[in-house]
Design brief:
alpha+beta, Lipocalin, eight-stranded antiparallel barrel, 9 strands, 50% helix, 18% strand, disordered N terminus
Length: 309
Amino acid sequence: MATLSVAEETKSSTAVRVIYAVLSYALGLLMLLYGMSKIMALQFQVFPSTYVKPLAEVSDFFAIAAFFGRFHWLEVLLGLVESIPSILLLFRRTRSLGAILLLGPISFVAITDYAYLSSSYYWDVRAVITGMLIADVGLLLLDQKTRKWIRDLFLLNSAPEYRRWQLELASNCILVLAIFVATYLLGHSVKANSGEILGFPQINGRGTWDVTTFEIDHKPVDLPRGEAAPQIYFNFDGSCRMNNLKAEIKQKCTAEINGRQHTIKLTELPVGGLNAPLQAKFQLDGLKLSIHGHSDSHEVSLSLNRHGW
């Protein structure tokens, strides 16, 4: 009977350790990506067209993003507050500390989401952050050494334990480094591909261009001048929009930008009566952007200037 009891206790203890480890890695990796998206200035993106709307018409999500993304240093600070505990969760001896430090940031995000985001439209966002909060609380409840986290962090009990700790330290450092490198390369690729035109982060009108000239078959299209001149917004989601046009003219378009090949494809360009997509090359020179290509058999050229970047 004693042997059976010990076996059952050992099996139960093993199951708890497995659940604890799975929760730690899942929450740590997810929060690490979440925090790094802030450090890379990728999370709090706002459509430039949002800034021309009255505040009452701005959605809750974009209002929050505009606030937290207003200053890049604040984004980096928030990202570090989330990323550092996430990294601690990946190491066995620092999981207690990571779970404790992560409870504050996750609770703050959960409170913000529940206070400001619509329950019907952003239910998936709430579900994810609620699940992360429950996972963190679960880690604290499962960890029998939470009250001894200082000893777990600084003391090494035996030589075999130390050797296992070295192996875990090396493997997790490689994992964290791989995540940082992969995220950096992805973010750099996005920015290199179209960031100079879109503007990251798109705060205070970045991504906005003044249309100075528009020619079809070398003939200028009659456009308003001065303050009434049209502007085009290139949004990070691939959409674009032209403002200051007549109400009867459709003002939305789509843009496919390849920064490496310096090509751009504009579909449904709202001026000039062009029906086919504009396949063009672009040249970026400081504050000026030149686009030259063809729509069907028509030769099309646009000259744009950055608007208050």
